[in-house]
Amino acid sequence: FMAMARRGLFYTFLAIYLRDTLGLSVTATTLYSSISMIANSVSQTFIWGKISDKYQASESLVIVGETTAMFGYILVYFFQTYLLNTAGPVAAGYGIIAGLSTLEFFWSMSNLGWSALISDLSTPEERGKLMGLISSVGGIGQIFGITVSGLMYDWGGEAGGFKNGPLFFFAAGIMLASAALIWFSIRPSKRKRRSKTDDSVSEETTALPNRYSPRLFYWFLCSIFIVGLGVNSISQILLMYVYLPSPIGATAFDVAMIRDSAAIAMIVTSLSAGFIIAKIGDRKAIGVGFVLAAITPILYTLAQNVAQMVVINSLSGVSTAFMNVVGYVVASNLIP
């Protein structure tokens, strides 16, 4: 809940802030997302993943990652303020991008730690329903974050939520609360880690690994990469598009509603994902997600007002829920 609330709170209007207020180009504005993703992927693959496998320190990764992110948001705000006063808005925009990319490099240990915790605390049979529940709770958190962001974006003046710091400090507070929650509820001494013997027994009771081969898994990764490439190629500029005077002409509150529509759809889909998977199978379920992800960008071009964009954007929430829930189930059962 808190992780998605933080993302919804901080990143919903960041592209608009960088573009419209600080004056970055569209290409430069998208750097905050692309560089952060690169930092996230590289650090998880080559650093935090190896640490987690070697030391089985998933809880520590979450706590350290969340705490680091808390201080990171505060430092990025003061760095932005310094650059605004000394070098101008464009320099401040690039400073935010650099700061958030560095923050993402360290925060990604928390993301990986959560994934490891889920695998440790659940059996393969439970993960579909568990991921559906987690995705739903995350969707509620995202709605909360997006709504607060819409209300606070112009707090104290144009883009005051970023200029004056409340969005930075709110995000930092969420990170602190998340770290505290893990520290007091899921410390290593308070939970029983599932042993490899338990894993092997669980794996023998599920048919999923027998239906997939390593080669098929790599093809699955390629398909996720291609779909992600398409989805993320427009995810950031879409908000700048709807914020233009024509054809949508969305206000800050309208932008929040458009983003909330995807989160609401994700909640509903995630809650029913386990039932849908049981009825049609995981292959067909993730196929539905892929098809919706492919046609949604085309439908965006047909929208002429906020209401139509709300309806169309809800399809992205459905596709995201299918890909997240089913994709995690497939991956977690195939990765040793």
Describe it.
The protein is mainly α. 84% of the residues lie in helices and 0% in strands. It is built from 15 helices and no strands. 42% of the residues are buried. Residues 189-210 have low confidence and may be disordered.
Mean pLDDT: 81
Poorly predicted spans: 189-210
Task: Find the count of extended strands (DSSP E, 2+ residues).
Answer: 0
**Sheet with the most strands, sense and barrel status:** none
Can you give me a brief rundown of this structure?
This protein has helices at residues 2-11, 14-21, 26-55, 58-86, 89-121, 124-152, 160-163, 166-185, 196-204, 208-211, 214-235, 237-242, 252-280, 282-300, 306-334. By secondary structure, the protein is mostly helical.
Main features:
mainly alpha; 15 helices; 84% helix; 0% strand
Detail the topology: elements first, then pairings.
Elements: H1 2-11, H2 14-21, H3 26-55, H4 58-86, H5 89-121, H6 124-152, H7 160-163, H8 166-185, H9 196-204, H10 208-211, H11 214-235, H12 237-242, H13 252-280, H14 282-300, H15 306-334
